[in-house]
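User: Can you write out an input/output pair for a complex, sequences first and structure second?

Assistant: Here is one pair. Inputs:
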Amino acid sequence: MVKVRFSPAPTGSLHIGGARTALFNWLYARHHAADGGVFVLRIEDTDVARSREEWVVGIQDTLRWLGLDWDEGPYLQSERFDLYLDAAARLLAQGDAYECYCTEDEVKERNDAAVAAGRPPGYDGKCRGLTADERDALAAEGRPRTIRFRTPDEGLSSFTDLIRGEVRVEWSLIHDFVIVRSTGQPIFFLANAVDDLDMGITHVIRGEDLIDSTHRVLALRHALVGGSEVADDPKFAHLPLIVDAESRAKLSKRHGAVALEDFVTAGYLPEALTNYLALLGWAPADDGHEVMSASELVAEFDLDRVTHAAAGFDRDKLDWLNGEWIRRISLDDLVARVLLMAQTRFGADIDVEVVAQAVAIAQERAATLVQIVDQMAFLFVDDDEFAIADESWEKVVGTDRIAEILTAVIEHVESCDWTVDALALQPVTEALGIKFRKAAPAVYAAIEGFHRGLPLFDSMELLGRDRTLARLRAAKQRLG
RNA sequence: GCCCCCAUCGUCUAGUGGCCUAGGACGCCGCCCUUUCAAGGCGGUAACGGGGAUUCGAACUCCCCUGGGGGCACCA
Protein backbone atom coordinates (compact mmCIF):
# COMPACT_ATOMS: atom_id res chain seq x y z
CA MET A 1 0.00 0.00 0.00
CA VAL A 2 1.34 3.38 -0.99
CA LYS A 3 -0.44 6.61 -0.24
CA VAL A 4 1.39 9.90 -0.35
CA ARG A 5 0.36 13.50 -0.11
CA PHE A 6 1.55 16.86 -1.24
CA SER A 7 0.55 19.39 1.36
CA PRO A 8 1.43 22.96 0.50
CA ALA A 9 0.52 25.99 2.54
CA PRO A 10 -1.39 28.43 0.30
CA THR A 11 0.65 31.42 1.35
CA GLY A 12 2.06 32.08 -2.09
CA SER A 13 2.26 30.55 -5.52
CA LEU A 14 3.97 27.23 -6.02
CA HIS A 15 7.72 27.66 -6.19
CA ILE A 16 10.53 25.48 -7.45
CA GLY A 17 11.04 23.66 -4.18
CA GLY A 18 7.36 22.93 -3.70
CA ALA A 19 7.03 21.74 -7.27
CA ARG A 20 9.93 19.35 -6.80
CA THR A 21 8.35 17.96 -3.63
CA ALA A 22 5.04 17.54 -5.43
CA LEU A 23 6.78 15.86 -8.34
CA PHE A 24 8.65 13.35 -6.15
CA ASN A 25 5.46 12.45 -4.34
CA TRP A 26 3.65 12.03 -7.61
CA LEU A 27 6.46 9.98 -9.14
CA TYR A 28 6.53 7.75 -6.11
CA ALA A 29 2.78 7.20 -6.18
CA ARG A 30 2.71 6.48 -9.89
CA HIS A 31 5.75 4.25 -9.73
CA HIS A 32 3.96 2.20 -7.10
CA ALA A 33 0.66 2.13 -8.93
CA ALA A 34 0.50 -1.61 -8.35
CA ASP A 35 0.53 -0.98 -4.60
CA GLY A 36 -2.32 1.49 -4.69
CA GLY A 37 -0.19 4.47 -5.45
CA VAL A 38 -2.59 7.12 -4.25
CA PHE A 39 -1.54 10.75 -4.52
CA VAL A 40 -3.41 13.10 -2.22
CA LEU A 41 -3.49 16.88 -2.44
CA ARG A 42 -3.97 18.48 0.94
CA ILE A 43 -3.96 22.22 1.43
CA GLU A 44 -2.47 23.12 4.80
CA ASP A 45 -4.22 26.39 5.42
CA THR A 46 -4.35 26.29 9.20
CA ASP A 47 -2.73 29.71 9.27
CA VAL A 48 -5.91 31.42 8.17
CA ALA A 49 -4.36 34.87 8.25
CA ARG A 50 -1.67 34.05 5.73
CA SER A 51 -3.62 31.68 3.51
CA ARG A 52 -5.50 32.92 0.49
CA GLU A 53 -8.07 31.38 -1.77
CA GLU A 54 -6.28 32.60 -4.89
CA TRP A 55 -3.20 30.61 -3.93
CA VAL A 56 -5.29 27.51 -3.33
CA VAL A 57 -6.52 27.84 -6.89
CA GLY A 58 -3.16 28.89 -8.29
CA ILE A 59 -1.29 25.94 -6.80
CA GLN A 60 -3.78 23.54 -8.33
CA ASP A 61 -3.50 25.22 -11.72
CA THR A 62 0.26 24.91 -11.62
CA LEU A 63 0.16 21.26 -10.57
CA ARG A 64 -2.19 20.54 -13.46
CA TRP A 65 0.06 22.42 -15.84
CA LEU A 66 2.96 20.27 -14.69
CA GLY A 67 0.84 17.20 -15.34
CA LEU A 68 0.77 16.14 -11.70
CA ASP A 69 -2.74 14.83 -11.20
CA TRP A 70 -4.00 13.88 -7.77
CA ASP A 71 -6.37 11.09 -6.81
CA GLU A 72 -7.83 12.59 -3.65
CA GLY A 73 -8.52 16.09 -2.54
CA PRO A 74 -7.88 18.84 -2.45
CA TYR A 75 -8.62 18.58 1.24
CA LEU A 76 -8.65 21.92 2.98
CA GLN A 77 -7.52 21.77 6.57
CA SER A 78 -9.52 24.90 7.28
CA GLU A 79 -12.60 22.76 6.73
CA ARG A 80 -11.43 20.11 9.14
CA PHE A 81 -10.79 22.16 12.25
CA ASP A 82 -13.31 20.16 14.28
CA LEU A 83 -11.23 17.07 13.79
CA TYR A 84 -8.08 18.74 15.08
CA LEU A 85 -9.83 20.39 17.99
CA ASP A 86 -11.33 17.05 19.02
CA ALA A 87 -7.86 15.59 18.95
CA ALA A 88 -6.58 18.47 21.08
CA ALA A 89 -9.35 17.87 23.60
CA ARG A 90 -8.38 14.24 23.82
CA LEU A 91 -4.74 15.08 24.37
CA LEU A 92 -5.80 17.50 27.06
CA ALA A 93 -7.91 14.84 28.76
CA GLN A 94 -5.09 12.34 28.55
CA GLY A 95 -2.67 14.79 30.07
CA ASP A 96 -0.49 14.82 26.97
CA ALA A 97 -1.29 18.48 26.50
CA TYR A 98 -2.05 21.36 28.82
CA GLU A 99 -3.48 24.84 28.72
CA CYS A 100 -0.98 27.65 28.66
CA TYR A 101 -1.80 31.21 29.62
CA CYS A 102 1.53 32.81 28.80
CA THR A 103 1.16 35.56 26.25
CA GLU A 104 3.28 35.61 23.12
CA ASP A 105 5.25 38.56 24.43
CA GLU A 106 5.93 36.91 27.75
CA VAL A 107 7.21 33.79 26.10
CA LYS A 108 9.41 35.82 23.81
CA GLU A 109 10.74 37.86 26.71
CA ARG A 110 11.68 34.82 28.74
CA ASN A 111 13.20 33.29 25.65
CA ASP A 112 15.40 36.29 25.06
CA ALA A 113 16.43 36.27 28.69
CA ALA A 114 17.34 32.60 28.48
CA VAL A 115 19.47 33.19 25.41
CA ALA A 116 21.13 36.16 27.06
CA ALA A 117 21.94 34.01 30.05
CA GLY A 118 23.47 31.42 27.79
CA ARG A 119 20.65 28.95 28.13
CA PRO A 120 18.89 27.45 25.11
CA PRO A 121 15.64 29.09 23.95
CA GLY A 122 12.32 27.32 24.04
CA TYR A 123 9.23 27.31 26.17
CA ASP A 124 10.15 27.00 29.83
CA GLY A 125 7.14 24.97 30.89
CA LYS A 126 5.76 27.65 33.16
CA CYS A 127 2.14 26.55 32.77
CA ARG A 128 2.87 22.84 32.87
CA GLY A 129 1.77 22.26 36.43
CA LEU A 130 -1.13 24.66 36.71
CA THR A 131 -3.97 23.55 39.00
CA ALA A 132 -7.57 23.96 37.94
CA ASP A 133 -7.92 26.94 40.28
CA GLU A 134 -4.84 28.63 38.88
CA ARG A 135 -6.14 28.12 35.37
CA ASP A 136 -9.48 29.60 36.24
CA ALA A 137 -7.82 32.60 37.81
CA LEU A 138 -5.65 33.23 34.76
CA ALA A 139 -8.62 32.80 32.47
CA ALA A 140 -10.61 35.23 34.61
CA GLU A 141 -7.89 37.81 34.01
CA GLY A 142 -8.89 37.55 30.38
CA ARG A 143 -5.56 36.05 29.37
CA PRO A 144 -5.31 34.29 26.03
CA ARG A 145 -5.10 30.53 26.19
CA THR A 146 -3.13 28.21 23.99
CA ILE A 147 -2.82 24.46 24.19
CA ARG A 148 0.66 23.02 24.40
CA PHE A 149 1.82 19.50 23.82
CA ARG A 150 3.88 18.07 26.64
CA THR A 151 7.09 16.61 25.27
CA PRO A 152 9.22 14.13 27.20
CA ASP A 153 11.96 15.66 29.33
CA GLU A 154 14.50 13.00 28.64
CA GLY A 155 15.26 10.11 26.38
CA LEU A 156 15.74 9.94 22.67
CA SER A 157 13.34 10.50 19.82
CA SER A 158 14.23 8.63 16.69
CA PHE A 159 12.77 7.58 13.39
CA THR A 160 14.12 5.99 10.26
CA ASP A 161 14.32 8.19 7.22
CA LEU A 162 14.25 6.35 3.90
CA ILE A 163 16.92 8.65 2.54
CA ARG A 164 19.01 9.52 5.57
CA GLY A 165 18.64 6.51 7.77
CA GLU A 166 18.28 6.77 11.53
CA VAL A 167 17.55 10.32 12.68
CA ARG A 168 17.67 10.92 16.40
CA VAL A 169 17.56 13.82 18.78
CA GLU A 170 17.31 14.28 22.53
CA TRP A 171 13.86 15.03 23.85
CA SER A 172 15.29 17.53 26.28
CA LEU A 173 15.99 19.74 23.28
CA ILE A 174 12.41 19.74 22.12
CA HIS A 175 10.23 21.97 24.22
CA ASP A 176 6.51 21.94 24.76
CA PHE A 177 5.00 23.40 21.63
CA VAL A 178 1.70 25.05 20.82
CA ILE A 179 -0.86 22.92 19.03
CA VAL A 180 -3.86 25.25 19.33
CA ARG A 181 -3.50 29.00 19.00
CA SER A 182 -5.09 31.49 21.37
CA THR A 183 -7.55 32.14 18.54
CA GLY A 184 -8.70 28.55 18.87
CA GLN A 185 -7.18 27.56 15.55
CA PRO A 186 -5.01 24.47 15.33
CA ILE A 187 -1.37 24.57 14.30
CA PHE A 188 0.47 22.67 11.59
CA PHE A 189 1.89 19.94 13.83
CA LEU A 190 -1.52 18.91 15.07
CA ALA A 191 -3.35 19.10 11.76
CA ASN A 192 -0.51 17.29 10.07
CA ALA A 193 -0.45 14.44 12.58
CA VAL A 194 -4.22 14.07 12.62
CA ASP A 195 -4.56 14.09 8.86
CA ASP A 196 -1.73 11.73 8.08
CA LEU A 197 -3.31 9.34 10.54
CA ASP A 198 -6.85 9.89 9.34
CA MET A 199 -5.97 9.63 5.66
CA GLY A 200 -3.75 6.61 6.08
CA ILE A 201 -0.68 8.25 4.58
CA THR A 202 2.04 5.63 4.21
CA HIS A 203 4.95 7.75 2.99
CA VAL A 204 5.78 11.32 3.82
CA ILE A 205 8.04 12.82 1.17
CA ARG A 206 8.99 16.45 1.81
CA GLY A 207 11.79 18.93 2.06
CA GLU A 208 14.65 18.50 4.47
CA ASP A 209 13.67 21.73 6.20
CA LEU A 210 10.93 19.74 7.88
CA ILE A 211 13.11 16.96 9.20
CA ASP A 212 13.35 18.31 12.74
CA SER A 213 9.62 18.78 13.03
CA THR A 214 9.13 15.08 12.37
CA HIS A 215 9.85 14.22 15.99
CA ARG A 216 7.06 16.45 17.18
CA VAL A 217 4.54 15.22 14.63
CA LEU A 218 5.37 11.65 15.45
CA ALA A 219 5.05 12.24 19.21
CA LEU A 220 1.64 13.75 18.59
CA ARG A 221 0.66 10.82 16.46
CA HIS A 222 1.72 8.33 19.09
CA ALA A 223 -0.17 10.18 21.80
CA LEU A 224 -3.25 10.24 19.58
CA VAL A 225 -3.00 6.55 18.81
CA GLY A 226 -2.44 5.74 22.44
CA GLY A 227 0.94 4.21 22.98
CA SER A 228 3.62 4.09 20.37
CA GLU A 229 2.24 2.18 17.42
CA VAL A 230 5.49 2.69 15.62
CA ALA A 231 4.77 -0.12 13.22
CA ASP A 232 1.99 1.95 11.66
CA ASP A 233 4.04 5.12 11.36
CA PRO A 234 4.38 6.41 7.85
CA LYS A 235 7.80 6.13 6.30
CA PHE A 236 9.59 9.44 6.00
CA ALA A 237 11.79 10.62 3.15
CA HIS A 238 13.36 14.05 3.44
CA LEU A 239 14.57 15.49 0.17
CA PRO A 240 17.70 17.61 -0.13
CA LEU A 241 16.90 21.28 -0.48
CA ILE A 242 17.25 23.18 -3.73
CA VAL A 243 19.62 26.12 -3.51
CA ASP A 244 20.96 28.70 -5.91
CA ALA A 245 23.80 27.09 -7.85
CA GLU A 246 25.87 30.25 -7.73
CA SER A 247 25.52 31.39 -4.14
CA ARG A 248 24.54 28.08 -2.51
CA ALA A 249 21.94 30.10 -0.66
CA LYS A 250 18.27 29.39 -0.42
CA LEU A 251 16.55 30.06 -3.71
CA SER A 252 14.94 33.49 -3.71
CA LYS A 253 13.67 36.13 -6.08
CA ARG A 254 17.11 37.69 -6.13
CA HIS A 255 18.32 34.66 -8.03
CA GLY A 256 15.72 35.02 -10.75
CA ALA A 257 12.47 33.19 -11.13
CA VAL A 258 11.42 30.90 -8.30
CA ALA A 259 7.66 30.80 -8.82
CA LEU A 260 6.60 28.14 -11.27
CA GLU A 261 4.31 30.66 -12.93
CA ASP A 262 7.36 32.66 -13.90
CA PHE A 263 8.72 29.68 -15.77
CA VAL A 264 5.43 29.29 -17.57
CA THR A 265 5.48 32.85 -18.81
CA ALA A 266 9.17 32.57 -19.62
CA GLY A 267 8.26 29.87 -22.12
CA TYR A 268 9.37 26.66 -20.45
CA LEU A 269 7.57 23.42 -21.16
CA PRO A 270 6.13 21.31 -18.35
CA GLU A 271 7.96 18.34 -19.87
CA ALA A 272 11.27 20.11 -19.42
CA LEU A 273 10.52 21.39 -15.96
CA THR A 274 9.49 18.02 -14.58
CA ASN A 275 12.46 16.43 -16.30
CA TYR A 276 14.86 18.96 -14.82
CA LEU A 277 13.31 18.96 -11.37
CA ALA A 278 13.49 15.17 -11.25
CA LEU A 279 17.21 15.38 -11.92
CA LEU A 280 17.68 17.72 -8.97
CA GLY A 281 18.44 15.32 -6.16
CA TRP A 282 17.87 12.16 -8.10
CA ALA A 283 19.52 10.33 -10.98
CA PRO A 284 18.41 7.27 -12.93
CA ALA A 285 20.41 4.11 -12.30
CA ASP A 286 21.96 4.56 -15.70
CA ASP A 287 22.69 8.25 -15.61
CA GLY A 288 23.67 8.29 -19.25
CA HIS A 289 20.22 9.32 -20.37
CA GLU A 290 18.96 12.54 -18.91
CA VAL A 291 16.22 13.58 -21.28
CA MET A 292 13.32 11.66 -19.79
CA SER A 293 9.58 11.84 -20.27
CA ALA A 294 7.19 11.71 -17.35
CA SER A 295 6.43 8.07 -18.01
CA GLU A 296 10.12 7.18 -18.15
CA LEU A 297 10.62 9.01 -14.89
CA VAL A 298 7.73 7.15 -13.33
CA ALA A 299 9.17 3.84 -14.47
CA GLU A 300 12.65 4.52 -13.13
CA PHE A 301 12.02 6.68 -10.09
CA ASP A 302 12.74 5.43 -6.64
CA LEU A 303 13.51 6.97 -3.30
CA ASP A 304 16.66 4.96 -2.71
CA ARG A 305 18.43 6.89 -5.44
CA VAL A 306 17.67 10.30 -4.00
CA THR A 307 20.87 12.19 -3.15
CA HIS A 308 21.73 13.69 0.22
CA ALA A 309 23.32 17.04 -0.47
CA ALA A 310 21.53 20.27 -1.37
CA ALA A 311 21.18 20.65 -5.13
CA GLY A 312 22.02 23.86 -6.98
CA PHE A 313 19.45 25.14 -9.41
CA ASP A 314 21.16 25.67 -12.76
CA ARG A 315 19.21 27.74 -15.26
CA ASP A 316 21.58 26.84 -18.11
CA LYS A 317 20.82 23.17 -17.87
CA LEU A 318 17.10 23.85 -17.70
CA ASP A 319 17.43 25.92 -20.87
CA TRP A 320 19.21 23.08 -22.61
CA LEU A 321 16.58 20.57 -21.52
CA ASN A 322 13.81 22.90 -22.61
CA GLY A 323 15.37 23.12 -26.06
CA GLU A 324 15.58 19.35 -26.17
CA TRP A 325 11.88 19.15 -25.40
CA ILE A 326 10.94 21.82 -27.90
CA ARG A 327 12.60 19.62 -30.49
CA ARG A 328 10.89 16.48 -29.21
CA ILE A 329 7.25 17.47 -29.17
CA SER A 330 5.32 17.49 -32.43
CA LEU A 331 5.19 20.57 -34.60
CA ASP A 332 1.43 20.82 -34.23
CA ASP A 333 1.71 20.64 -30.50
CA LEU A 334 4.41 23.28 -30.47
CA VAL A 335 2.40 25.57 -32.74
CA ALA A 336 -0.57 25.26 -30.42
CA ARG A 337 1.52 26.25 -27.43
CA VAL A 338 3.21 29.13 -29.18
CA LEU A 339 0.03 30.43 -30.81
CA LEU A 340 -1.52 31.54 -27.55
CA MET A 341 1.56 33.48 -26.60
CA ALA A 342 1.87 34.97 -30.04
CA GLN A 343 -1.75 36.06 -30.08
CA THR A 344 -1.42 37.69 -26.70
CA ARG A 345 1.56 39.57 -27.94
CA PHE A 346 0.69 40.41 -31.53
CA GLY A 347 -3.10 40.30 -31.57
CA ALA A 348 -5.72 37.62 -31.90
CA ASP A 349 -6.04 38.16 -35.64
CA ILE A 350 -2.54 37.11 -36.65
CA ASP A 351 -2.17 34.65 -39.51
CA VAL A 352 -2.02 31.18 -37.99
CA GLU A 353 -0.40 29.79 -41.10
CA VAL A 354 2.46 32.25 -40.86
CA VAL A 355 2.87 31.42 -37.19
CA ALA A 356 3.00 27.75 -38.02
CA GLN A 357 5.67 28.27 -40.65
CA ALA A 358 7.77 30.41 -38.35
CA VAL A 359 7.45 27.86 -35.56
CA ALA A 360 8.56 25.11 -37.90
CA ILE A 361 11.77 26.99 -38.55
CA ALA A 362 12.29 28.00 -34.94
CA GLN A 363 11.63 24.55 -33.51
CA GLU A 364 15.06 23.29 -34.39
CA ARG A 365 16.89 26.22 -32.89
CA ALA A 366 15.07 27.79 -29.95
CA ALA A 367 15.45 27.13 -26.24
CA THR A 368 12.18 28.60 -24.99
CA LEU A 369 8.73 29.43 -26.32
CA VAL A 370 9.38 33.09 -25.63
CA GLN A 371 12.45 32.89 -27.80
CA ILE A 372 10.33 31.49 -30.62
CA VAL A 373 7.82 34.29 -30.26
CA ASP A 374 10.63 36.83 -30.13
CA GLN A 375 12.11 35.45 -33.30
CA MET A 376 8.86 35.73 -35.23
CA ALA A 377 8.04 39.17 -33.94
CA PHE A 378 9.33 40.90 -37.07
CA LEU A 379 6.56 39.26 -39.08
CA PHE A 380 3.78 40.73 -37.02
CA VAL A 381 4.99 44.24 -36.40
CA ASP A 382 3.55 46.90 -38.69
CA ASP A 383 6.16 48.24 -41.03
CA ASP A 384 5.79 51.78 -39.76
CA GLU A 385 6.35 50.56 -36.22
CA PHE A 386 9.21 48.31 -37.11
CA ALA A 387 12.54 49.35 -35.65
CA ILE A 388 15.90 47.75 -35.34
CA ALA A 389 16.86 46.99 -31.75
CA ASP A 390 19.41 49.45 -30.41
CA GLU A 391 21.90 46.74 -29.66
CA SER A 392 21.71 45.50 -33.23
CA TRP A 393 21.69 48.94 -34.75
CA GLU A 394 25.05 49.60 -33.20
CA LYS A 395 26.34 46.51 -34.91
CA VAL A 396 24.85 47.66 -38.20
CA VAL A 397 26.41 51.09 -38.02
CA GLY A 398 29.67 49.49 -37.14
CA THR A 399 29.67 47.32 -40.26
CA ASP A 400 32.21 48.24 -42.90
CA ARG A 401 30.75 49.69 -46.10
CA ILE A 402 27.27 49.24 -44.73
CA ALA A 403 25.58 51.69 -47.11
CA GLU A 404 27.07 49.92 -50.08
CA ILE A 405 25.89 46.57 -48.84
CA LEU A 406 22.33 47.73 -48.26
CA THR A 407 22.18 49.44 -51.61
CA ALA A 408 23.37 46.34 -53.40
CA VAL A 409 20.94 44.11 -51.53
CA ILE A 410 18.05 46.45 -52.27
CA GLU A 411 18.90 46.53 -55.95
CA HIS A 412 19.13 42.78 -56.02
CA VAL A 413 15.79 42.25 -54.32
CA GLU A 414 14.15 44.81 -56.60
CA SER A 415 15.35 43.09 -59.72
CA CYS A 416 15.15 39.43 -58.78
CA ASP A 417 12.23 37.19 -59.52
CA TRP A 418 11.56 36.60 -55.86
CA THR A 419 12.15 32.95 -55.99
CA VAL A 420 14.17 31.06 -53.53
CA ASP A 421 17.19 31.08 -55.78
CA ALA A 422 16.95 34.77 -56.42
CA LEU A 423 16.95 35.45 -52.71
CA ALA A 424 20.52 34.32 -52.47
CA LEU A 425 22.40 37.29 -51.10
CA GLN A 426 25.80 35.77 -50.82
CA PRO A 427 26.83 36.58 -54.40
CA VAL A 428 25.58 40.11 -53.92
CA THR A 429 27.98 41.00 -51.17
CA GLU A 430 30.75 39.00 -52.67
CA ALA A 431 30.41 41.01 -55.84
CA LEU A 432 31.40 43.91 -53.64
CA GLY A 433 34.31 41.93 -52.35
CA ILE A 434 32.73 41.47 -48.94
CA LYS A 435 32.29 38.07 -47.33
CA PHE A 436 28.67 37.47 -46.55
CA ARG A 437 29.42 36.50 -42.97
CA LYS A 438 30.71 40.01 -42.45
CA ALA A 439 27.72 41.65 -44.04
CA ALA A 440 25.10 39.33 -42.61
CA PRO A 441 24.33 40.94 -39.23
CA ALA A 442 23.40 44.20 -40.92
CA VAL A 443 21.07 42.50 -43.38
CA TYR A 444 19.50 40.43 -40.62
CA ALA A 445 18.99 43.48 -38.46
CA ALA A 446 17.45 45.45 -41.30
CA ILE A 447 14.93 42.73 -42.03
CA GLU A 448 14.32 41.06 -38.67
CA GLY A 449 15.12 43.94 -36.38
CA PHE A 450 17.76 41.94 -34.62
CA HIS A 451 21.20 40.72 -35.66
CA ARG A 452 20.34 37.20 -34.62
CA GLY A 453 17.18 35.35 -35.54
CA LEU A 454 15.51 33.06 -37.99
CA PRO A 455 17.37 32.08 -41.17
CA LEU A 456 17.36 34.84 -43.76
CA PHE A 457 15.83 32.97 -46.72
CA ASP A 458 12.85 31.85 -44.75
CA SER A 459 12.43 35.19 -43.10
CA MET A 460 12.37 37.05 -46.40
CA GLU A 461 9.93 34.61 -47.87
CA LEU A 462 7.59 34.85 -44.93
CA LEU A 463 7.81 38.62 -44.94
CA GLY A 464 7.23 39.02 -48.66
CA ARG A 465 9.10 41.15 -51.14
CA ASP A 466 7.40 44.47 -50.48
CA ARG A 467 7.90 44.46 -46.75
CA THR A 468 11.43 43.17 -47.15
CA LEU A 469 12.24 46.02 -49.45
CA ALA A 470 10.56 48.55 -47.23
CA ARG A 471 12.71 47.49 -44.32
CA LEU A 472 15.91 47.47 -46.25
CA ARG A 473 15.18 50.98 -47.51
CA ALA A 474 14.26 52.17 -44.03
CA ALA A 475 17.52 50.88 -42.67
CA LYS A 476 19.45 52.60 -45.42
CA GLN A 477 17.60 55.82 -44.81
CA ARG A 478 18.29 55.67 -41.11
CA LEU A 479 21.96 55.53 -41.91
CA GLY A 480 21.52 59.01 -43.35
C1' G B 1 24.37 29.83 21.32
C1' C B 2 22.37 24.75 20.96
C1' C B 3 20.63 20.51 17.83
C1' C B 4 20.43 17.94 13.17
C1' C B 5 21.96 17.02 8.16
C1' C B 6 25.48 17.22 4.16
C1' A B 7 30.51 17.15 1.44
C1' U B 8 33.17 13.86 -6.32
C1' C B 9 34.68 18.65 -12.16
C1' G B 10 31.93 25.86 -12.03
C1' U B 11 26.72 23.15 -11.81
C1' C B 12 23.57 18.35 -11.77
C1' U B 13 25.49 13.69 -10.86
C1' A B 14 27.61 8.07 -11.59
C1' G B 15 30.49 5.61 -8.18
C1' U B 16 28.80 1.47 -2.27
C1' G B 17 37.07 -1.66 -1.09
C1' G B 18 40.43 -3.49 -6.27
C1' C B 19 36.77 -2.77 -12.97
C1' C B 20 38.85 4.71 -11.21
C1' U B 21 45.35 6.88 -14.93
C1' A B 22 37.19 8.70 -11.37
C1' G B 23 32.31 7.94 -16.08
C1' G B 24 28.04 10.96 -18.08
C1' A B 25 25.23 15.67 -18.66
C1' C B 26 24.97 21.23 -18.63
C1' G B 27 28.28 25.26 -19.03
C1' C B 28 32.97 26.81 -20.94
C1' C B 29 36.99 26.41 -24.88
C1' G B 30 38.43 24.62 -29.87
C1' C B 31 37.30 22.49 -34.62
C1' C B 32 33.59 21.04 -38.35
C1' C B 33 28.94 22.28 -40.65
C1' U B 34 26.74 26.94 -41.92
C1' U B 35 23.43 32.89 -45.83
C1' U B 36 24.78 36.12 -39.32
C1' C B 37 23.30 34.06 -34.53
C1' A B 38 21.57 29.52 -33.14
C1' A B 39 20.79 24.29 -33.68
C1' G B 40 23.73 19.95 -34.89
C1' G B 41 28.49 16.91 -35.14
C1' C B 42 33.47 16.06 -33.20
C1' G B 43 37.24 17.03 -29.61
C1' G B 44 39.15 19.41 -25.15
C1' U B 45 39.41 21.81 -20.10
C1' A B 46 37.84 20.48 -15.25
C1' A B 47 36.62 17.10 -9.22
C1' C B 48 37.19 12.82 -4.93
C1' G B 49 37.85 19.87 0.98
C1' G B 50 42.13 18.75 4.82
C1' G B 51 44.35 15.36 8.47
C1' G B 52 44.53 10.81 10.84
C1' A B 53 42.86 5.44 11.29
C1' U B 54 41.38 0.44 9.31
C1' U B 55 43.16 -2.58 5.09
C1' C B 56 47.59 -5.98 0.91
C1' G B 57 44.51 -2.03 -1.33
C1' A B 58 40.51 3.34 -0.24
C1' A B 59 36.20 8.46 -3.75
C1' C B 60 33.90 4.42 -1.30
C1' U B 61 34.55 2.24 6.19
C1' C B 62 35.69 4.98 11.08
C1' C B 63 37.41 9.52 13.84
C1' C B 64 38.81 14.74 13.99
C1' C B 65 38.98 19.45 11.50
C1' U B 66 37.14 22.69 7.92
C1' G B 67 33.28 24.25 4.92
C1' G B 68 28.03 24.45 3.47
C1' G B 69 22.81 23.82 4.60
C1' G B 70 18.57 23.23 7.78
C1' G B 71 16.12 23.68 12.52
C1' C B 72 15.28 25.74 17.62
C1' A B 73 7.58 30.47 16.48
C1' C B 74 0.57 31.26 18.74
C1' C B 75 4.74 29.87 9.95
C1' A B 76 4.43 25.52 7.38
